[in-house]
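Per reviewer request, we include the raw input and output of the structure prediction for the construct analysed in the revised manuscript.
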Amino acid sequence: MNYTIKVAIILLLLGSCSENNHSVQKKRFVVGVSIDTKGSERWQKDKMFLIEKLHERGAEIVVDEPQGDDHLQLEQVNEMIAKGIHILIIVPVNSRTATVIVENAHRHNVKVIAYDRLIQYAHVDIHVSFDNEKVGELQALYLLREVPKGRYAIIGGAIHDNNSYHLKKGQMKILKPLADKGEIDIVFDDWAQSWTSEEGKRLCELSLSLSPSIDAIVAPNDDIAEGVLSALATHDLIGKVAVSGQDATLKACKRVLNGTQTMTVYKPIKNLAEVAAEVAYKLHFQEPIYEINAQIHNGLIEVPSILLEPIGVDESNIYQTVVYDGFITPSELEN
């Protein structure tokens, strides 16, 4: 074999190896997931579904749980970035302080997906969530069905969570016109410090101390509703006060069936995890994202967003929604 042919073969082999190496490199897809599952049935399920859906797309996954501590979340995400993640999917502990996380991620060419909770004042790449304003509307409408006239207490969601304000906007869109007309009387309105049953109990006790006669309590999620109901029980008011919720937790769904909690809002989080995993894949491989259906201003920019539809749930449709989807099994609900 002459020298020219040998050189040609070597160059061909080297080119083939280079293409194969490039292909292997392109296929590497590392996603960091920062999500606080502490004490919350809902977030444990989100974590499980996210891992499942990301694995289906061939992702390597780094997961950390910040335990409700925004400083710890920053440290953990910095460690993820040092490990070489390409995409960060984050549920911010604090929607405002997480701005620093986004800035640092972008300095290292890591794209950021704000999962469920929007991060304020930051160049977030994309936001995937449910229509939280619609969640608030559903809560108010269900309570009005039970209590068209009466005294209302409103407990806002965690004050550091941007979703709380969208939720409140939806609630007040329905309730304020009726309050202005004098058909309902809003006797209490305050924000929770966290999405916990302890906060629900504290604020319910406070509302009852200020106004012992309350007909409906707008509780922003099922954990806070649990605390509200605990406080109502000490005043012999269980079943006498309409109470809303959100997340369709197992305990809440049982309460809806036994009549102690008026309603909850089911958010098909398996679908949300599916969307987040798909978006992560498309961001990394620079594919177009056609699913964007909203732009939400976060104080700095209009963030491209994908908002899914929430579903109001009461005793009439619980089996057709959360059970039908496999979110909760019949045996879990009935035991």
